[in-house]
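Page 47, continued from p. 46.
Same chain as before, 253 aa.
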Amino acid sequence: NKIEVMTPSASLLLLLLLGLSQALPLQEDGGKEEKAPDTVDITTRILRSNNGSNEILLEGDLLAPRTRNAIMCYTQNCFWKKTPFTSSEKQLIVNAMQGFHSKTCIRFVPRKNENDYISVENKEGCYSELGKVGGSQVLSLNRQGCLYYGIIQHEVNHALGFQHEQTRSDRNNYVTINWANINPKEAYNFAKQVTNNQNTPYDYTSIMHYGRTAFSINGKDSITPIPNPNVQIGQRQGLSSWDIIRINKLYSC
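Result:
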């Protein structure tokens, strides 16, 4: 089953090919996230949704590569039932992906018979592979907690190859990680990575930045911006200006 991008009346899975175009960006509305009754940041929503997931997740929403054998089962009783997205949920996913079209050279198109593609599925939580891995590449958006414009763009940006902002190689110049407020078992989620920063500045406004209480065990800040601790981090509205620049630089737009 698949959701064709331009025909939201189709069925279960959104199977998409990442298409690149050197043409000028389309001028179209990227859509906006529906206003929620609270101000919960993206990271908090993602971590709540992923709580209890059976997947091995790095940094909260990056799917760790692994292989496993399937169970032997000759009835349908031992398999989870597929729950399709509604037409409005499909349209929200499409709108968030089309938000990349108006500002970048990325184009998401319906899969035909391509070997490599993104499969957006209603699984347990919000998570993605990092970059292209080949074959059918799962991007999970649980319909109970992940269908927000900003979360969708966050996970799609992981699939495009972007890591969390606060794990970039020079992060210690811009944020303090408050280890005392983080469960030692979760500390690995804050490990610095060897990142391609593309000569762009650290971006507190990135859609890829954690919120300030991510993985906190006491409600206090796990991340504090420096030198100004009051700088906002963890916005949930959509791609920042630097997110857009980085996508275009990485894909040589």
